[in-house]
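pinned: reference chain
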Amino acid sequence: MLRRIWRLAVKEYIQLKRDRLMALFIFLVPFSQMVLLAQVSGQGVAHLGLAIVDHDLSIHSQDLIQALANVRDLSWRYQPASDDELVSLLDSGKVVVGVVIPAGFERELLRTGGRPMVQVLVDGSNSMVAATAKSYVEGAVAAYGQQLAKRHGLSIVPAIRLDSVLRYNPSMKERPYAIPAQMGFIVYEVTLTMASLSFAREKELGTLEQLLVTPLRPLELVIGKSVMVWIVGSLNFLGIFWLVTAVYDVPMRGSFLVLLAFSLLFVAVEVSYGIILSAFSASQQQAVLYTFMLAITDVGLSGYLVPVRSMPALLRSITNVSPLQHYLAAVRAIMLKGAGLDVLYPRLLAIAAIGMVVGLLATAAATRQSE
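pinned: its structure tokens
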């Protein structure tokens, strides 16, 4: 009995050894994914975008701006000219926190008993990031007050009041931020898995050869295999969207048509990814394994687990080629902030550009199958 078991085990080893692509995925990809996940999850909350509107334009307002800019984990990227421009930056997700220094700040600060007020606008859609950004600003303003007292030999630290406004999620609940991302990931997972089985299923059933002898061109073959998966993925989005808004009461502040446009395009891109995985899979089991490996990598780069802004610079650059990252950012911005195409069009163009490249690769993979 032991000899028979041993021979079967040796046979499985030889089969794995011959399948070099599978062996590469089994041994190399898990190590790569562990490094990736460790990198994105070990950075904490950092590189938080900061915008400052200075209506006072005084020496002391400039000193306060410098104190905020010196905070290591705040990234001062913009100095908008108006409050409306600041709100637009928050809507687009380019900054997490905005500080508005009012006119007369210096005069009120130097007045005996003066208590100037500074407004702080925080993107509250992610409660953890919002609380951290708010604490960074509060700490910087408090430190500036102490420096000012020391510089002028004051026994009492000047009182700078902060009027903090949490936009998009005033109650600081985590559910409105997490559930839209979960919706996007489920649509991603279902679409990619279904598409990855398309060619692999035909290979297992022995019907792929019959398809290849038909007069279908490679592009026609890809479109024909993709249509039903695209329809199912789109219907999946509509059903989950209803569940998220009707049952879990997640707000929908933006345009549903804009969200639908993003979703239909994203589903098409993921169908192309699945077609590529399916073309290189010898079986449905192998296709599912490849899908699992790709999904873990995409989740790490998408901002689903860790905000993209908290990743190292190299990984932040890599996330630009992840359609899931652009899609999740758009879903959250549309549903929670009411953002429209005027601020989200770069993400739509990014998904479209990635889709064109992946679509061409899917067609090439189908051509490879027909040779």
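why pinned: The mean pLDDT is 82. The two ends are 44 Å apart (CA to CA).
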